[in-house]
Amino acid sequence: MKKKRVSKFTLGLMLLIILSACGQKGIENPYNWTVQDFTYTNQAGEQTGLADLKGKVWIADFIFTSCEDVCLPMTFNMSKLQDKAKEEGIENLQFVSFSVDPAVDTPETLKAYGDNFEADYDNWSFLTGYGQQEIEDFAKESFKTLVVKPESDDQVIHGTEFYLINQEGKVLKSYTGLKDIPYEEIIKDIKSIQ
Questions:
Q1: Which of 25, 65, 108, 167 could be bridged to 113 by S-S, CB 3.0 to 4.6 A?
Q2: Binding site for Cu cation: what residues are annotated?
Q3: Which CATH number fits domain 33-192: 3.40.30.10, 3.40.50.300, 3.90.550.10, 3.30.70.3180?
Q4: Three-class SS of the chain
Q5: 98 contacts 62 by C-beta, under 8 angstroms
Q6: pTM to 2 decimals?
Q7: Residue extents of the structural domains in the chain
Q8: What burial class does residue 127 get, using C-beta atoms within 10 Å of its C-beta: 0-12 exposed, 13-18 middle, 19+ buried?
Q9: Count of alpha carbons within 13 Å of 62, Cβ hemisphere only?
Q10: What is the disulfide pattern of this chain (predicted)?
């Protein structure tokens, strides 16, 4: 009789451990950087901001349309990630590309740029409508990344990461957005916080 109680207890404990492990959600060692409130203009000329993203998981990056090197592959990779997320049936997910050259990147310019990558604007916004100093400060304070537009050059210096942001507007993790994109890891991480 005593033996059965011990084994039932042990079985119950093991089941509890397994269930609690299965129920764990989230990212290991998240950054937990708070994205500052913003309201910018998207490729359709509409206002889009942090309030519109509340309750949604989102992926962000920093690009500009006249970029001569890293932005084209980054945007191609983001488009591929958008396709993979659709294939996985992931819903309530947004993609946000912040222009780091807002004086050049009008909503119309961003729309033409996004069209080249067959962006699905249902859940991908290309944002502009702010000053250069504002985007430089926003990138540094919210995403801990550098954005600098040298006075003597039309090419903007900026980071090449993709950022995972949770439903509360916290940056949890970053990934390379340029080459050897860890698509499976990103998809897994998105699913883990939904």
A1: 65
A2: 67, 71, 158
A3: 3.40.30.10
A4: CHHHHHHHHHHHHHHHHHHHHHCCCCCCCCCCEECCCCEEECCCCCEEEHHHHCCCEEEEEEECCCCCCCHHHHHHHHHHHHHHHHHCCCCCEEEEEEECCCCCCCHHHHHHHHHHCCCCCCCEEEEECCCHHHHHHHHHHHHCCCEECCCCCCCCEECCEEEEECCCCEEEEEEECCCCCCHHHHHHHHHHHC
A5: yes
A6: 0.87
A7: 33-192
A8: buried
A9: 25
A10: 67-71
